[in-house]
Amino acid sequence: MPEYEFTFAKNITETNEENLLTAVRDSATTVYRTFAITLDGENKAYVNSIEEAQEVVDEIKAEHGLDLELNIGIQEVYTENSNDIEAVEVAIAKQNMENTIDTIIKMKENSVNGILLSTPTNGTISSRFGSRWGRAHTGLDISASTGTPIYACSSGTVTNASYFGGYGLLIKIDHGSGVETYYGHCSRVYVTVGEEVQTGDLIGLVGSTGNSTGPHLHLEIRVNGVPKNPQNYLYK
Ligand SMILES: [Zn+2]
Question: Rounded to the nearest 10 degrees, how much is the dihedral formed by the CA atoms of 198, 200, 201, 206?
Fold first, then answer.
């Protein structure tokens, strides 16, 4: 509610209630208040009252609170632009929160040691990780035609960009936290050792260099040097 007081500005000016109200409106700032439901300190959905916010939080916690360590809270928000914080119905707020949580769950599933991974190329799985012909296959083979783009699974530093034994033309990226990705049998390499790459950067092309019987990407994900099954995170 606005607070104002009456004073005499000019004793010769006639005015009425309508004029006063207009003057007050013109000089006042309208501030809108809503309640934000927050996840890890970020506002994710807005509702009109603290009771509604609490209802959403309680329902989300009842569904996810135990298995996910969710840092969920309520924040009173003020703004002069109501578009910034448009309050929605409880059901919609709850749906928004669910969508956000689903994204978080997916991200955690695609993460190794906190490094979020995305698929490096499109193709068909032609050989899985694990035992193969009596010896361990340390990666996942993704069959694709020669020249298919290969993208960085995550940001990091290139640590190899040349021929490396049976891997043929091999790109290695160090993502930090002990996580590395290998991209073997490339036909072309577009990065150099020491280069910083971002998730999704084009780093090379699929080929059949090295110990390979047909064009494919040999993808390896290593944690502290130990190969992990890429399908724990990607191409599930
Ligand atoms: Zn392979």
Answer: 140
| Ligand 1 center to 127 CA (angstroms) | 7
Residue 115, pLDDT > 70, answer yes
Strands, E assignment, 23-122: 32-39, 42-47, 72-79, 111-112, 115-116
Most confidently modeled of 13-22, 27-36, 79-88? 27-36
CA of 217 to the centre of ligand 1 (A): 7
Question: Residue 149: its pLDDT value, please?
Answer: 98
* The last residue of a domain, from among 109, 138, 159: 109
Are 105 and 127 found together in one domain? no
Ligand 1 centroid distance, CA of 141 (Å): 5
In 3-state terms, what secondary structure has residue 85?
coil
**Same structural domain for residues 139 and 176?**
yes
On the question of pLDDT at 92 being above 80, the answer is yes
How many whole angstroms from 16 Cα to the centroid of ligand 1? 85
